[in-house]
Amino acid sequence: MGNCWGAKISSESPSRSVYTSGANSKFTSRNANGLSSSSSRVSASSVPPTPRSEGEILQSSNVKSFTFNELRTATRNFRPDSVLGEGGFGSVFKGWIDEHTFAAAKPGTGIVIAVKKLNQEGFQGHREWLAEVNYLGQLSHPNLVKLIGYCLEDEQRLLVYEFMPRGSLENHLFRRGSHFQPLSWNLRMKVALGAAKGLAFLHSDKAKVIYRDFKASNVLLDSHYNAKLSDFGLAKDGPTGDKSHVSTRVMGTYGYAAPEYLATGHLTTKSDVYSFGVVLLEMLSGRRAVDKNRPNGEHNLVEWARPYLTSKRKIFRVLDPRLGAQFSLAGAQKAAALALECLSVDARYRPNMDQVVVALEKIQDCKDTARDARAEVKMSSTGFGSSKQRYRRRSSGEAVNGKAAYPRPSASPLGSSAK
Q1: Family assignment (predicted)?
Q2: Half-sphere exposure of 292 toward its Cβ, with a 13 Å CA cutoff?
Q3: Which residues are annotated as a binding site?
């Protein structure tokens, strides 16, 4: 495996997504044995070890097997106006099914579902589809999106999820427009805590799963802004016995993968912690992990922000100007310190996700007033607010000709490597 992202990553190209279940922004060619979790009614401890045959996975999953005609009816024949999102995997459609029988229902009745339809372009997509069924059909947690069912019929591969009405965290952070208002500080911390709890569950002894593709587009929000992890095509079972890591082909999304994983192909739970640190930094700054539209020196968020995160006064140069003075000074400092710790170059110095959950819970308990933060912002205006005004960018989240444009890396492995 190479120790760099390599030339296989194509230049960013636009995709649109309102719902997004991790459908955009992947440059990964995923591994089917790495499945992750999220939905059903069986306890995680009952999950049999992988690898397993396709038949065993489908038989042991606790989700409904839909026919293609059932899903075609539920989505009104996959009408274009029912598209919730598009990405490397395929398109996601809105549909309706009966709450009790799961039969197709008329629009506006029963329960709303999100149906992901796989592009019929090769075996790799099928492996990712199977990975989703494997993990999501076995595990259940409040912070993992629920898989309701699947369809495997001839060449058709579909997945049926619970509908997440507020879409992805990525959209709320980076998309501009009246439909997507900037998330408040409290909501950002709530989402961060929920996502951290989801990762902590995956890393627990009950699940023992490494997610491997944690990013803002894979964090979905329900109507109350509860965060749920989605898209488990890249997830892998964690190390067993006395092994400290899993050796695997390097896959993920540009800007989120841990440096030691890129360099060695050794995957651990601390790889997920690094990715969480990147997303937490995105939430604090309102900037994408990678944004080539930024000035030179600011393309890579982690590299640009790291020097400011070490200073209690300079962190205001990183914080999203749209936050105003909503946050407490102590809360902002603690969140910046936590992000920096998660982004430690040496994985040994990163916290585990249980420790991250505790730290985020403490941040939510910060009681000092916003007046302190407002005063600090004013003192730091030369490095914080004014730079924002000097630099008016047309980022991937801003409107282009009235339509939102979203760059995303192409779907491809990061490099060659082990099994």
Answers
A1: Belongs to the protein kinase superfamily.
A2: 8
A3: 117
Active site residues: 213
Give the pTM: 0.76
Radius of gyration of the chain (CA): 21
Q: 169-394+402-408: what CATH class?
A: mainly alpha
Return the H-helix or E-strand segment holding 385: helix 385-390
| Residue 73 and residue 182 in contact, taking contact as beta carbons nearer than 8 Å | no
Residue 301 above 90 pLDDT? yes
d(CA 169, CA 181): 12
Report the 10 Å Cβ neighbour count for 49: 8
Return the CATH superfamily for domain 24-162.
Phosphorylase Kinase; domain 1 (3.30.200.20)
Q: Which of 335, 352, 168, 354 is nearest to 271 (CA)?
A: 352
Residue 216 has phi, psi (to 5 degrees) of -65, -30
Domain ranges of the chain: 24-162, 169-394+402-408
Task: Look at residue 385 and tell me whether its pLDDT is greater than 90.
Answer: no
Q: Strands 147-153, 111-118: parallel, antiparallel or unpaired by DSSP?
A: unpaired
Q: Enter the tokens of residue 183.
A: 């998330």
**Residue 148 in contact with residue 101, Cβ under 8 Å?**
no
* Alpha carbons 35 and 133: distance in angstroms, whole number: 8
Please calculate the CA angle 234-228-189 and round it to the nearest 5 degrees: 115
Residue of 282, 299, 267 lying closest to 418 (CA atoms): 267
**Which pLDDT value is given to residue 248?**
76
Residue 26: half-sphere exposure toward Cβ, Cα within 13 Å: 29
∠ CA 214-337-269 to the nearest 5 degrees? 35
Helix locations, 149-295, DSSP H: 169-174, 185-203, 259-264, 269-285
Binding residues for ATP: 117
24-162 and 169-394+402-408: identical CATH topology: no
- Which among 288, 334, 292, 329 is positioned nearest to 309, based on CA atoms? 334
Residue with tokens 């999203």: 320
- The residue assigned the tokens 């999953």 is 61
Q: 9 near 414, Cβ under 8 Å?
A: yes
The confidence band for 254, taking pLDDT boundaries of 50, 70 and 90, is confident
Q: What is the pLDDT of residues 106-137, one digit of tens each?
A: 988 999 999 999 876 655 677 788 878 888 88
Question: Of 358, 339, 359, nearest to 350 (Cα)?
Answer: 339
